[in-house]
Amino acid sequence: MTTADGTEHTVTVTINGSDDGAIITPATPDADAGTVKEDTVLITGGKLDVVDPDAGEAVFDAKTVTDGNFGTFKIGTGGTWSYELNNGSAEVQALTEASEPLSREFTVTTADGTEHTVTVTINGSDDGAVITPSVPDADAGTVKEDTILTTGGKLDVADPDAGEAVFTAETVTDGNYGTFKIGTDGTWSYALNNGSA
User: Fold this and answer.
1) Where are the alpha helices (DSSP H) in the chain?
2) Residue ranges with strand state E in the chain
């Protein structure tokens, strides 16, 4: 700039930048959510896209997160994420088909700190129970007319699904021969109907 007599002076203007917020979107619909299922679907994943006008900031912070005993979440700088279920965990195996699905949430961030949530749903499945005699031959018994009128034993059950390691109590009439009973703890008995013709 100059004055009327031609004297000059320089005015300096400094232009500072500012952080423009990144915009995170799923690469495809619902690519920020996934589902795994005990014993059957052990891995899920997806991809997030990020747009950021600030140079060099359109990337994600890569990280690996151990999700307690349930699984492992990973995301790379390009936005590709995965979740692997820890199927051998007792907490996972305790889930049943009827269990309330578990919702796990993971916060991912871009280079400028913009956050987005990835949600993984964990579903349970029914594990088959294993039934064994409490002692050898406890799943068999003998009765004899007029002399040995009752017999019994006990069965054990192992089932990793929470609350399912029990028997269904029932009483069964065995025609005119006798009556069979079993309790929820696996104790069973058979009473001979000795008065039957």
Assistant:
1) 90-93
2) 23-26, 33-37, 43-51, 63-67, 71-75, 80-85, 102-109, 115-123, 130-133, 150-158, 170-174, 178-182, 187-192
Token pair, residue 45, equals: 């994943």
| pTM, to two decimals | 0.68
Mind listing the pLDDT tens digit for each residue in 140-193?
999 999 999 999 999 999 988 878 889 999 999 999 999 999 999 999 999 999
**What are the structural domains, with CATH classification, of the chain?**
23-123 (2.60.40), 130-192 (no CATH)
Q: How far is CA 186 from CA 20, 29, 134, 183, in A?
A: 67, 50, 9, 5
Nearest to 189 by CA among 155, 147, 144: 155
